[in-house]
Specification:
With 305 residues, the chain is an alpha+beta fold. 24% of the residues lie in helices and 32% in strands. The strands form three sheets. Strands 1, 2, 4, 7, 10, 11, 13, 14 and 15 form a nine-stranded mixed β-sheet that branches. Strand 5 and strand 6 form a beta hairpin.
Length: 305
């Protein structure tokens, strides 16, 4: 801004004065301003790219006996070039845009890019097609709920002693936190379990486990995606980050409340319950392909080992 002001003010005055053509200021000022504006817009487009970025936070409940479950996920999208055909979901999937109270108030009057956005939902035989909802260079969110059919348990649990449990990571990715409760007030905690890794866990009491889990979740709590950061898209006039904070979660947010009940100092878990925090999950329905960053999947259930 300083360089631009120096060029447009003293710089042009000096230049036009030396060539004795001060009248050129009428032409040069708007031309240079337009070129600078175009350069900023071009830089924003090239810097943000044309990829689609995803960040998913999900809660999955698995019924081990019946082999079914249900998942809720909050999916954040930021797309430089959304697919023209829109996004596709299964016909029996519940989905709605996430716009919390106060989100509109994050923008000055008349600048909310999502205000007045029209889109169509077409119900096909086995799919639903959302056209026009995902706009370019706007951070947007969907709350998605769907059934889980034959979900695979992320861990294998075996009792290896009176106060010991052996667990194995059965997923293809790391598991930052694995928390188990036995038949009483015995708890077992594992951290950063690598794929296929087996560990033997010693029994811990509730106070020790809840304190440790609360510390671990400080760094793992969902935050604004780095691709939009606190200033938002360059095409969003700096309000994208604010809108994310307003719509990401709240005191009554379904996912946030479940995270608190399962992985915090407010821990509430059934006997033989398990809570597994994963970075990736193939069981979540994602309607658009893109680059995923820092996703979190909380997998819950009971397994009488």
């Amino acid at each position: 801004v300083t360089l631009f002001g120096a060029l447009l003010g003293p710089g042009l005055l000096t230049f036009t004065g030396r060539i004795a053509r001060r009248s050129l200021m009428i032409f040069l000022v708007p031309v240079i301003s337009l070129l600078a504006t175009a350069a900023i817009v071009l830089y924003g487009v090239l810097h943000e790219g044309f990829d689609t970025h995803l960040r998913i936070t999900s809660v999955q409940h698995i019924d081990v006996n019946s082999g079914v479950g249900f998942a809720w996920s909050r999916q954040n999208y930021f797309s430089g070039l959304p697919p023209r055909e829109g996004i596709f979901l299964n016909a029996d999937t519940y989905a709605r845009p996430v716009v919390a109270d106060g989100a509109t108030g994050s923008y000055p009057s008349g600048t909310n890019p999502r205000e007045g956005v029209d889109f169509s939902i077409t119900l096909l035989q086995d799919q639903q097609n959302w056209r026009g909802w995902l706009k370019p260079r706007q951070q947007q969110q969907l709350l998605i709920g769907h059934a889980l059919r034959m979900p695979k348990l992320p861990i294998e649990i075996q009792r290896s002693g009176k106060q010991q449990v052996t667990i194995e990571n059965k997923t293809l990715g790391p598991l930052p936190i694995v928390l188990l409760r036995g038949e009483g007030d015995d708890y077992y905690l594992a951290e950063d379990l690598a794929p296929s890794q087996r560990v033997v866990l010693e029994v811990q009491d509730n106070a020790a486990v809840t304190s440790k889990v609360a510390q671990l979740m400080v760094d793992l709590r969902p935050s604004a995606p780095p691709e939009i950061n606190q200033s938002g898209s360059l095409m969003d006039f700096g309000f994208g980050g604010t809108r994310y904070i307003n719509t990401a979660a709240g005191d009554n947010d379904l996912l946030d409340v479940t995270f608190q009940q399962a992985l915090s100092d407010k821990l509430s878990m059934e006997h033989f319950g398990f809570a597994v925090l994963a970075r990736q999950s193939a069981d979540i329905e994602v309607p658009i392909k893109g680059k995923s960053s820092e996703s979190l999947h909380l997998i819950l259930g009971t397994y009488p080992w």
